[in-house]
Specification:
The complex is a heterotrimer. By secondary structure, chain A is of the alpha/beta class. Chain A has 24 helices and 18 strands. In chain A, the strands form four sheets. Chain A has an eight-stranded mixed sheet with strand order 6-5-7-8-9-17-16-15, sandwiched between helices. By secondary structure, chain C is an alpha/beta fold. Chain C has three domains: about 230 residues, Rossmann fold, CATH 3.40.50.300; about 140 residues, P-loop containing nucleotide triphosphate hydrolases (Rossmann fold); about 70 residues, no CATH class. In chain C, β4 and β5 form a beta hairpin. In chain C, α3 crosses α4, α3 runs parallel beside α5 and α4 packs across α5. Chain C is globular, with a radius of gyration of 23 Å. Classes of the chains: A alpha/beta, B mainly alpha, C alpha/beta.
């Protein structure tokens, strides 16, 4: 054509297969997955079984749906922080439509999806039409949606009692082995893979991610395409909510908390660039798998759950580091300008990070592995001794798996102390695990892992009755004994309930104390945990009943949340004292809230105001001695944990069974049993007189 | 001479705040007492310090969502150090150093190794939080030495000192951003990293220092918060990072970097910090707090856009 | 004064410089020419310290510079003004100028009034009427360039590098600049002047060095070399004609604009016809509204008065997608931001505007994509190692060819080209021109926006001149002369401008 053509150089048309299959270096993730599986099949009980694999996939479906929707959004350079909150809103809409509006389930599900779509449309409008930055818009809707969910349900409502057919969607097994929702995820993965990697529409998304302006000039309707992604994300959040509700059997405003971070982590771990233009469906799936398998494997290996967080964080950093380096001078397209002086020598950093990661893993796992092998040795030795001694078979130490509502809550930490004391005394192997903060979904996950592991007894302080009962029943079917403590599940889901005090008892005692302090008349305010905390709401119900019945002179003027945060309780109390100057008593019904409220009262200089509530002695001692806190209501949490372990052990060895009237529990002596409830005693009032006798 | 047009975003935020205050004044005038305002300032002083640091981070074109975990770590560390016998005057430099150290880790990964800040700080958020939980097992740090609370200054002096420090730090950094070369370098790097390099401003040290400073400010915030009480919980600072980012953004700083002021952040922090108590004073159900905060963020965006439209139709460059 | 000897530099497997040498004396304007990809930008970057050479050395004032960096180079008195202005959009003009000049001591306090004063001085020297307190991001590209020049002036550089400085300047500003350059020369500043505008060089340069394929070919006195010689040296062989003459058998009217206007774009009352087989050149000063007109026709800006008719039928384009469907293609002015997507592969770029056409039931036919890409690579002579190479690694000329391929793939009946050969080397330029002629011959209607007079005069069948957002005159090929065009563009009736002047870019 032109006279300038040199001899024709052949043009390559096929990229090397590794580039095509793993454009973002996802092979690193594959290696990580293999490493994880290898590691955990050695250290974890029953990790490498089909049943466990299926459970793992069940757990991953809800976040998986979110991660799928998040992938194209991140590819176009956007982000959606609101997906978890949307799940909460959709969940409560579903529950309310079904229960309060008596809609048939199918219709309710459709409307729920519609709500998700509309929420996504709100994001789409602001991001695509009005060109607001996605990070900020979805930060706003993250608050807005969750807030709407809490506002609509007033934090309290918890819808449950769904039909069996519906629950099968989330809890059932197709063909006896495959979790139902997995099919949905597989379909989703297939569709998204086709959409992003094979379709013209998907190609345009990558162009938008690299350069939205450039895409516009090429005739791509950028605003429309981007907007669609957020609408899809909203709809999928709605779908994820439906699966979640079916899975747990309950619909509450806190559904999906934290899921957005997990979804984003999965996508970024999978090689997508947060700046847009890169990302694959396979990468996101691999990323999600890496996280879910890590959590599951750690749990089955008996490692503390915090490790999962630390390792996930490390994994994230190392993966992007390695990816960045392998692109360094190779495939990275630095336009004209060379990457400048700041660039670090590739080989050095690869070596460095590999060493760090290896060292971290070694230290952590080696640490407790040695403990484990020590335990194993001990067991064997004991067994051998008894064998040599008289032919008696090796004494199998009962494995009791105990779960609090929230590991981080000081109340449960003190229960643990008592439990460990009992475990030492009675010769029990105690596994202590659970969600760090209130999280019913996590509780289910942990129980599932324990079932896989094959423990002897599971004892749970139940966050949500309905959700946990399904999985507890499953445990019982597999021959595992189940007790509940502190808060009960459905009665057919457990063998016994270790009861320290009934919610009614607690509520009445609190009100009686309040009446005593105020002299049967006056105003008081309640500082609760979170507005949706089930326990606290139970107590409040009984408080109100008691007030109406017995104390007409007492008036409850306000209920403010502290979200389990001492500082927040402090601030809320300050405000209450100012808004309601007539208040003379603050009733703080969450452990960290009492010291917070007390500090606020003290600093305000209001000597006429007192504080009472439900808390742990140690944190309140200084205030009790100063006179700010009159009294606190509780029971001996150490004893509660202690008793639970003894009861569990008795169950395991067959010493305790239905119909028993009494139980011997170590230093507690003989404990009374009423029906299927093991009674610790009545609520205890701690005051200046006796508080120093206790240390928990 | 102040070109008001340059600060339209900050002004619109201030306007919104004024409107909120007016509404509160109408519905619950008891809001405006010295005591309440002082308490409001105190409760939000840590947030303000962190938002100050966050402003710099966002100005330089990055983000740091690990501050909540850093806050918790330093809070606990301060308590442990004090219990372990560290003399009170040494507490301040220790937390600054510790905070700066945590920030420096971020600074190294983001600045030197060039990793995207949202991912790095996301990882740190989770890692630090879980490491803290693991080591403390949820226990609170109690029985602190008597000189710890209020750093031995007594309640009133201590309270005003905290507010003064927070505002003072904001003021000093605000001045520095405007008038020190180092401050201008932050804007330059955030505005156009490559141009900065070509102009002789090395982006890497600037980014590193900004993250370290963020860490130090977080440490300071943690200490100032911890000394208000006599015990230190192990789970403080949850959600602090998002609140700080919201304050910065509502205050008019652009999320892509290079544009924004600390004055705006002050307004943003004040606005978001006032919403909660204002709702209580107005007798509105606390359930709606999250929804209101979300609405404010969206409104901030909307007003910004609206102002931009107005300018193009009415302002000097209008067509 | 400045000497770069036997420099070699490789990036990611591409040998940008093999054996380049360059020598600059004080008080001279030394032109550096070469096709795109010859290594001019790389050489400049090595001198300014933006990158480090693999081998060879750079001497300044007789001393060898071992570890160059932007700071070091600045301190030694080297200043550069690049094609793309590197200003901070969020900072004021005054601050932009100051940052480039001040020795940044981290704890130094800023003296704002002094900054403002200095900026005002420097801007006046360059003849730019810009308020120092405005944000640099609000300025137009030519204004930004003037700010850059002002900054370089302030740097009191001993070596100043000007990389395509007049690319987007008006005639007036160019003359201004030449005046400044002459003044600097008299003061003993050495200047490296890079340009594709060979006609400018004869006015302003003392010597010229030719680079080709990373090697220095020759250095000659400007006066002793002809344009033809230069081109030969750059290209390595003789070129018959730079602008192929063409015969036109204009067909029907394909595109007609009737009193078209767009308030948002600043275009009003534009009436124009483009026939099949015809190339209509659109000339005018910077800011006369040519690109804006193109954007209005293409659907990027909303048209609120008049109409656009395609083959006699009125059409309304709310978006580029509609325009493309109707057979209009627009190759934009800003190649790197709008013309191509730099990080995507050649094949992805080529097919980006034809995705619908290439897909069946939504799925992209990857094999056809590859075939199409290979086809265009061959037809247009795009130099790329593979179809999946990211476009960013190609030279400017090849990037432009990729952009063209994209639009050719849409089989347009109307092709609007906005500065099709800006920043493109001579060889590729000729190829693009030949392509345009070929397309016209096949019946396409071409509207070509250009700021290069020779290109306008050489390629157009008719020339429309714009001023202030509207068309002020249309000249036929026979009637068109540089002075006449300039007169229409400037709006005076004198019609005579100096020889060698050009209508600004």
């Amino acid at each position: 054509m032109s006279d300038r053509m040199p001899a024709e150089a052949a043009v390559e048309t096929e990229a090397p297969w590794r580039e095509r299959l793993f454009p973002n270096g996802e092979w690193i993730l594959l290696l990580v997955l293999v490493a994880e599986c290898g590691l955990f099949s050695v250290t974890g009980n029953n990790f490498f079984t089909v049943a466990n694999a299926m459970e793992v996939t069940r757990l991953g479906v809800e976040v998986g749906l979110l991660a799928l929707a998040m992938t194209p959004i991140i590819i176009t350079g956007g982000i959606d922080l609101s997906v978890g909150s949307m799940m909460g809103l959709a969940a409560v809409v579903l529950g309310s439509l079904w229960r309060d509006a008596s809609m048939p389930m199918a219709a309710a599900v459709l409307v729920t999806l519609l709500i998700g779509l509309l929420g996504g449309a709100l994001n789409a409008l602001m991001i695509a039409r009005l060109s607001f930055p996605p990070l900020i818009v979805t930060l706003g809707t993250y608050s807005l949606f969750r807030g709407a969910a809490e506002g609509l349900t007033r934090g309290i409502e918890n819808y449950s009692g769904f039909s069996q057919e519906f629950l099968f969607l989330g809890q059932g097994y197709v063909g006896g082995a495959v979790p139902t929702q997995l099919f949905g995820l597989i379909a989703g993965v297939a569709f998204f893979a086709w959409w992003l990697h094979r379709s013209a529409h998907g190609r345009s998304l990558y162009a938008i991610g690299h350069s939205a302006e450039g895409a516009r000039y090429a005739g791509i309707p950028v605003a429309r395409r981007v907007g669609l992604l957020y609408v899809v994300s909203g709809a999928l959040s709605g779908l994820a909510a439906v699966v979640y509700v079916a899975h747990l059997g309950q619909a509450k405003a806190d559904a999906g908390t934290g899921f957005e971070l997990m979804a984003i982590t999965a996508v970024v771990l999978g090689g997508a660039s947060i700046f847009g233009g890169r990302g694959t469906v396979m990468g996101s799936v691999l990323g999600l798998s890496a996280i879910v398998i890590l959590q599951n494997g750690l749990r089955l290996s008996g490692a503390p759950a915090e490790l999962a967080g630390i390792l996930t964080g490390t994994l994230l950093v190392v993966t992007i580091l390695l990816d960045r380096l392998s692109k360094g001078s190779g495939g990275q397209t630095r336009t004209d300008a060379e990457v400048g002086e700041g660039e670090v020598k590739n080989s050095q950093v690869v070596a460095l990070s590999a060493v760090i990661l290896a060292a971290a893993l070694l230290v952590i796992l080696g640490n407790y592995w040695s403990v484990r092998s020590l335990r194993q040795e001990l067991r064997d030795t004991v067994g051998r001794q008894s064998l040599g001694g008289g032919g008696k078979p090796a004494e199998h130490k009962p494995v009791v798996a105990m779960m609090p509502k929230a590991k981080g809550d000081p109340y449960f930490i003190s229960c643990r102390k008592g439990a460990e004391e009992a475990a030492r005394e009675a010769g029990v192997e105690l596994l202590w695990d659970g969600p760090t903060d209130l999280d019913p979904a996590k509780q289910n996950e942990v129980v599932e892992a324990w079932i896989t592991r094959g423990v002897d007894v599971i004892s749970v302080s139940v966050e949500n009755e309905v959700a946990i009962s399904t999985v507890l029943r499953k445990a019982r079917q597999r021959g595992i004994r189940v007790v509940t403590w502190d808060a009960d599940a459905q009665s057919d889901a457990r063998d016994f309930f270790i009861n320290q005090a009934t919610p009614q008892g607690i509520g009445y005692t609190l009100v009686d104390e309040a009446a005593r302090i105020l002299g049967n008349k006056g105003e008081f305010a309640i500082i609760t945990a979170s507005l949706s905390a089930a326990n606290q709401n139970e107590w409040i119900k009984h408080i109100k009943t008691r007030l109406a019945e017995k104390y007409p002179g007492l008036k409850l003027v306000a209920i403010q949340p502290s979200e389990g945060d001492r500082d927040r309780a402090f601030a809320e109390t300050q405000t209450v004292l100012k808004v309601y100057p007539g208040v003379k008593l603050i009733m703080a019904i969450a452990a960290p809230a009492v010291p917070g409220a007390a500090e606020a009262v003290e600093q305000s200089g209001r000597k006429d105001v007192k504080v009472t509530g439900l808390s742990l002695p140690n944190m309140c001692k200084p205030y009790v001695h100063k006179g700010v806190v009159e009294s606190i209501v509780l029971w001996n949490t150490l004893d509660l944990g202690y008793l639970t372990v003894y009861a569990s052990r008795a169950l395991a060895t067959g010493d305790l069974s239905r119909g028993a009237r009494k139980l011997r529990a170590g230093r507690l002596g003989e404990i009374e049993i009423q029906g299927d409830q093991v009674m610790l005693g009545a609520p205890f009032v701690f005051s200046r007189k006796n508080i120093d006798q206790f240390d928990f | 001479m102040l070109k008001l047009g340059r600060y339209k975003r900050e002004l619109s935020a201030a306007l919104a705040y004024a409107v909120l205050l007016a509404l509160v004044g109408l519905v619950a005038p008891s809001f405006f007492t010295t005591g309440n305002l002082r308490d409001l300032a105190l409760n939000n002083a840590p947030l303000l310090l962190i938002a100050t640091g966050m402003t710099l981070v966002i100005l330089v074109g990055q983000i740091d969502i690990s501050v909540g975990s850093q806050f918790a770590v330093v809070s606990v560390a301060a308590g442990v150090l004090a219990k372990g016998g560290l003399p009170v005057p040494l507490l301040l430099p220790s937390v600054l150093l510790l905070g700066a150290g945590l920030g420096a880790v971020n600074g190294f990964l983001v600045g030197r190794l060039g990793l995207p800040s949202i991912i790095v700080t996301l990882a740190m958020l989770v890692a630090w939080r879980d490491a803290l939980r693991w080591t403390t097992e949820g226990a609170w740090v109690q029985d602190l030495p008597s000189g710890f609370q209020w750093l031995g200054l007594g309640q009133t002096a201590g309270q005003w000192s905290i507010v003064a420090v927070a505002l003072g730090v904001l003021g000093v950094l605000g001045w520095a951003l405007r008038n020190l070369s180092a401050g201008r370098a932050v804007y330059a790097v955030g505005s156009d990293r490559e141009a900065a390099r070509l102009a002789g401003i090395e982006p890497v040290p600037v980014v590193f220092c900004v993250f370290a400073l963020m860490g130090a400010l977080t440490g300071l915030a943690a200490l100032l918060n911890a000394v208000r009480f006599s015990a230190i919980p192990s789970n403080t600072g949850l959600g602090l990072e998002l609140k700080a980012v919201a304050a910065v953004v509502v205050g008019g700083t652009a999320i892509r970097g290079g544009r924004g002021t600390l004055g705006g952040t002050l307004v943003g922090a004040a606005l978001l910090g006032t919403v909660g108590p204002a709702l209580t004073f107005a007798g509105i159900n606390p359930f709606w707090e999250k929804a209101v905060q979300g609405a404010i963020i969206l409104a901030a965006l909307g007003s910004d856009k609206l102002l931009g439209e107005l300018e193009s139709h009415v302002g000097p460059n209008a067509r | 004064m400045l000497e770069a000897s036997h420099i070699a530099k490789a990036y990611a497997g591409v040998q940008a410089l093999r054996d380049a040498s360059f020598e600059l004396q004080a008080g001279e304007v030394h032109a550096l020419v070469g096709e795109n990809g010859a290594g001019k930008s790389t050489l400049v970057k090595i001198i300014t310290g933006a990158v480090e050479a693999d081998s060879g050395e750079v001497r300044l004032g007789g001393r060898v510079i071992t570890h160059n960096s932007p700071r070091v180079a600045r301190a030694l008195g080297v200043a550069a003004i690049y094609q793309q202005p590197a200003l901070f959009p969020d900072l004021t003009v005054a601050e932009n100028i100051a940052i480039g000049l001040e020795q940044s001591v981290a704890w130094g306090v800023v003296d704002w009034p002094a900054r403002r004063r200095r900026a005002a001085e420097l801007l006046a020297q360059v003849g730019a009427r810009i308020d120092p307190d405005r944000d640099a991001g609000d300025l137009s590209m030519p204004q930004q360039q003037l700010v850059e020049i002002a900054r370089a002036l302030g740097a009191v550089a001993r070596v100043m590098i000007l990389d395509e400085p007049t690319a987007s300047l008006s005639e007036e500003d160019t003359q201004n600049l030449f005046g400044v350059i002459k003044r600097l020369r008299a003061q003993g500043v050495g200047m490296i002047y890079i340009s594709h505008r060979l006609e400018e060089l004869s006015v302003i340069a003392d010597r010229v060095t030719v680079l080709r394929d990373g090697c220095t070919i020759d250095t000659r006195a400007m006066a002793a070399v002809s344009r033809k010689d230069l081109i030969e040296l750059m290209v390595g062989r003789e070129l018959s004609a730079v602008f192929p003459k063409k015969e036109v058998d204009a067909g029907e009217v394909v595109l007609e604009l009737r009193r078209l206007g767009s308030r948002a774009a600043g275009v009003r009352d534009v009436s124009l016809e483009v026939r099949a087989g015809e190339i209509v050149g659109l000339a005018g000063l910077v800011g006369s509204g040519r690109t804006e007109l193109a954007e209005t026709v293409f659907g990027l800006a909303p048209a609120d008065e008049g109409e656009v008719l395609l083959r006699g039928r009125p059409v309304r384009f709310a978006s580029p997608a509609r325009a493309i469907e109707s057979g209009i293609a627009y190759v934009p002015e800003d190649r790197r931001r709008h013309g191509v997507v730099l990080e995507m592969a050649v094949s992805a770029n080529v097919t980006l505007a034809s995705l619908q056409r290439l897909s069946r039931f939504g799925a992209l036919d990857l094999r056809r994509e590859t075939e199409m890409t290979v086809d265009y690579v061959r037809r247009l002579g795009i130099k790329t190692p593979a179809t999946f190479t990211p476009v960013a690694t190609l030279s400017g000329g090849n990037q432009q060819k990729v952009a063209l391929s994209r639009w050719l793939a849409t089989k347009p009946s109307v092709l609007i080209l906005d500065e099709p050969t800006q920043g493109v080397d001579v060889g590729a330029k000729a190829e693009i021109h030949a392509l345009m002629v070929e397309l016209a011959g096949q019946g396409a209607a071409i509207l070509m926006i250009s700021s290069e007079m020779p290109e306008i005069l050489g390629m157009s069948d008719r020339i429309a001149v714009m001023r202030g957002g509207t068309i002020v005159g249309v000249l036929s090929r026979a009637d068109a002369t540089q002075p006449r065009i300039l007169a229409l563009a400037l709006g005076d009736d004198h019609g005579q401008a100096g020889a060698g002047s050009k209508v600004g870019a």
